[in-house]
Amino acid sequence: MIRNDKIILRALEPADADLLYDWENQMELWAVSNTLTPFSRHQIITYINQISLDIYQTKQLRLMIDVPRAEKQESIGMIDLFDFDPYHSRGGIGVMIYKPERGKGHAREAVDLFSQYCFNHLGLHQVFCDISEDNTASIKLFESLNFKFIGRKKDWLKTPIGFKDELLYQKLAGQ
């Protein structure tokens, strides 16, 4: 586990299947995750089994975000490393906090802790994130952690009401 005094990042377990099934099938999150269709329980279980493979094979890492509560840990979200490229020493970060827990600083703690893990343990030179131009909460989050705006992909995201730009943010090791 990767942890500090406020947050725990841990590997997915088979027991997480029902929670992931619920989260991944919430249509309101699909625009952020680029999902178009619902997931079956079988797909979620297969995913959990595959994600446990080595990061160098899968080129991704998904961890659950847990917070310590009075009697036990509670899962409140997920954080991902995607497009992991060990040769160029980079990877993308995505984070999702379940709605009742948003706005409490958990995403900031998770991204900060995960970024340090990527730099210090995986030896990455840079991490990046892609954010829809209208996702002001994510823009503020990543900017508060010293991610720098480095580009705009015009009309990158198709939505029911038209196309949106996607913003690219980056953080280099040591910044």
UniProtKB/TrEMBL annotation:
Protein keywords: Transferase
InterPro entries xref list: Acyl_CoA_acyltransferase, GNAT_dom
Keyword hit for Transferase: yes
A single MF term (Gene Ontology): acyltransferase activity, transferring groups other than amino-acyl groups
Residue ranges of domain N-acetyltransferase in the record: 7-174
Transmembrane regions listed in the UniProt entry: none
Pfam assignment, any one: Acetyltransf_3
Superkingdom of source: Bacteria
PANTHER family according to UniProt: GNAT-FAMILY ACETYLTRANSFERASE, SPERMIDINE N(1)-ACETYLTRANSFERASE
Descriptive protein name: GNAT family N-acetyltransferase
Species the sequence originates in: Marinilabilia rubra
